[in-house]
Design brief:
- The chain is α/β, with parallel strands linked by helices.
- It folds into two domains: 117 residues, D-Maltodextrin-Binding Protein, domain 2 (3-Layer(aba) Sandwich), CATH 3.40.190; 106 residues, D-Maltodextrin-Binding Protein, domain 2 (3-Layer(aba) Sandwich), CATH 3.40.190.
- The strands form three sheets. Strands 5, 6, 9, 10, 11 and 12 form a six-stranded mixed β-sheet that branches. Strands 2-1-3-13-4 form a five-stranded mixed β-sheet, with helices on one face. Strands 7-8 form a two-stranded antiparallel ribbon.
- α2 packs across α6.
- The two termini are 19 Å apart.
- This is LysR family transcriptional regulator.
- Pfam families: LysR_substrate.
- Belongs to the LysR transcriptional regulatory family.
């Protein structure tokens, strides 16, 4: 591990170039950006273009160096670097909403509430919310009282008392701890597989690409957060 760090330090003055990354919104902010911020601080001669796209793309045809998607969606001919642990979902709303409309005690009761629905695009709103009930996966189709294709707006609408949101827990963890949002139905949370950075197995990787991979490795992230 230390030899790898030393080798990268030797190139610290020469890492340059341009990297293009395609990522879904949530992992770009929560998993990619923290490492990218450190990377660019150390290697300011690298230019990075991040395209936020919640749909799968052909990264080779469209000229991307990396993609960020759920690890189970990565094609077998790609190299995948796990960026996160498993990703539990959370059903949240403000106390103001619950005081006005009541507190659902089961996933099925969500059908009688105002729900803030995430969307991939104009044609694919996620109204089938997934839960684990009595050990089985269930899907509850909720009303789309409000819909956004942006997680920040979904979260803000929940904070403003406009409805109940189903959102990755890591995206609202701070608000839950601060008491701004209340999580319900946590015993029945559904958990999705980890996120991964992926790239073509046989493509030549520039020094900039190799260095960014190093910064995104879990052990590097842990060292960066160490006291």
């Amino acid at each position: 591990m230390q030899r790898g760090v030393d080798a990268l330090d030797d190139f610290s003055q020469t890492v340059s170039g341009r990297l293009r990354i395609n990522s879904a919104e949530n992992p770009a902010w929560h998993f990619l950006y923290p490492a990218m911020r450190r990377f660019l601080h150390d290697h300011p001669d690298v230019n990075i273009e991040v395209i936020i796209d919640n749909n799968m793309v052909d990264m080779v045809t469209e000229g991307f160096d990396f993609g960020v998607r759920p690890i189970n969606h990565v094609a077998q001919d790609m190299v995948a670097l796990q960026l996160s642990g498993e990703r539990p979902m959370a059903v949240v709303a403000s106390d103001d909403y619950f005081s006005r409309f009541g507190l659902p005690t089961s996933p099925q009761e969500l059908t009688r509430h105002r729900c803030i629905v995430p969307a991939f695009d104009a044609f694919s709103r996620i109204t089938a919310w997934e839960f684990i009930q009595e050990g089985q996966l269930i899907r509850v189709t909720v009303p789309a009282s409000l819909s956004f294709n942006n997680t920040t707006m979904v979260k803000q609408a929940a904070l403003d008392g406009l409805g109940i949101a189903w959102i990755p827990r890591y995206a609202v963890e701070a608000e839950i701890h601060q008491g701004l949002l209340t999580e319900i139905l946590h015993e029945q949370r559904f958990t999705y597989p980890p996120m991964a950075l992926y790239y073509p197995r046989n493509r030549h990787r520039t020094l900039a690409a190799q260095t960014l991979i190093h910064y995104l490795r879990p052990e590097s992230q842990a060292l960066a957060g160490a006291p």
